[in-house]
From TrEMBL:
It catalyses: 4-hydroxy-4-methyl-2-oxoglutarate = 2 pyruvate. This is 4-hydroxy-4-methyl-2-oxoglutarate aldolase. Its EC number is 4.1.3.17. It comes from Azospirillum doebereinerae. Belongs to the LigK/PcmE family. One of its GO terms (biological process) is phenol-containing compound catabolic process. GO terms for molecular function: 4-hydroxy-4-methyl-2-oxoglutarate aldolase activity; metal ion binding. Substrate binds at G93, D94, I95, L96, R115. Keywords: Lyase, Magnesium, Metal-binding.
Length: 222
């Protein structure tokens, strides 16, 4: 067991600026990296989160390390849990959610399931997971890690990396790439705004994205 009780968090202004970007835009800005796999989705449509990752590795039958992590969390932290993809139980439910809300956590991302879904929705706490399962887990096994480097949803996540999520899924921006990623995301956003103006003026995506050479290659004329 390794438990680092604290970690260096990125500047709140940087987290806020990245959180204002769509996860898909950040993914593209990083060269199509950082996106968690398809199974990790919002518990309910419309959920959004952003914040520094507080990482947990535990499971697949015990959630004691999650309780430890919540107790160590600071306001705005996003709990990112490697629960080994286990879907036969829900290690997170309404009681942990109530604790997380009281402590001001920014949300949960877990490579596993949760339970008490309706209560979580009613508390307004954003959760991204593989799905739901009503079965509980043990709380006795201190095998696991807190604030170490983990893999969640197929993405390497270190404590202090910035997590952003919406209906499209979850993206992780490594802390040392955050400023550069923000710059590239803003540039991409500006370029896409110009695309919209040109599309409204009548251009096609074939013209806009210079796709004609690919059509010429297969002898397709439009």
């Amino acid at each position: 067991m390794t438990v680092h009780k604290d970690f260096s968090r990125p500047a709140a202004t940087l987290v806020e600026a990245l959180g204002a970007q769509a996860p898909a835009t950040l993914h593209e800005a990083m060269g199509k990296k950082g996106a968690m796999g398809h199974p990790i989705k919002p518990l309910y449509p419309g959920m959004r989160l952003r914040g520094p990752a507080l990482t947990v590795s535990c499971g697949p039958t015990d959630n004691l390390m999650i309780h430890i992590a919540v107790a160590l969390a600071k306001p705005g932290d996003v709990l990112v849990v490697d629960f080994k993809g286990m879907t036969d139980a829900g290690p997170w439910g309404d009681i942990l959610t109530a604790s997380a809300v009281a402590r001001g956590l920014g949300g949960l991302v877990i490579d596993g399931c949760v339970r008490d879904a309706a209560a979580i929705r009613d508390m307004g706490f954003p959760v991204f997971c593989r799905g739901t399962n009503m079965k509980g887990t043990n709380k006795t096994d201190a095998k696991g890690d807190v604030n170490t480097t983990i893999v969640c949803g197929g993405v390497i996540v270190s404590a202090g990396d910035i997590v952003v999520a919406d209906d499209d899924g979850v993206v992780v921006v490594p802390r040392d790439l955050a400023a550069d990623t923000l710059e590239k995301a803003l540039a991409r956003e500006a370029a896409e705004e110009q695309y919209r103006h040109k599309l409204e003026a009548g251009e096609t995506t074939i013209e806009l994205l210079n796709l004609k050479p690919y059509l010429d290659a297969v002898g397709l004329a439009l």
